[in-house]
Hints:
The chain is α+β, with helices and mostly antiparallel strands. It has three helices and five strands, in the order ββαααβββ.
Amino acid sequence: MRQRTQFRYNTLGNGLVHPFRRVASSDFVSAEGEPLIRSCISQILGTRVGELRWRPAFGINLEQYRHRNTTDFSDAGGASGLSHLISSDISTTLSSWESRIGVVDVQASVEAASESSPLLRNKIVCQINWSVRSEDAMEGSDVLIGPVSQEVTL
Length: 154
């Protein structure tokens, strides 16, 4: 029987936190563990596909949903088909680019821009529930942290 060692955050990595900002020591803010993963998820969802020339497949194209008419995608149950489409896209993207987590649930909603200000765009609000998985675990087992709830506004 394998003996478990005590979980340490540094097994999840250490890196710069998005958005980049400086601290008093003239260095950039960095994090490890859950805060780093939260930052990585925000960075993945905030990057358009093709934006990074050295990694052209990285990111997600949420801009395509921003100007859609939300009533065109309603299904018979009254739930927005557009929200379901966005949730599915986000779940697939996070599963592809963030291997440290298992996506439990994604709920997305589109908030329409104000009529008084036509220059504003629709706002996409995502509620993401995820858990951190062990590297040597089989799919769906051996959860280190979770479930964690995170809200991202795009």
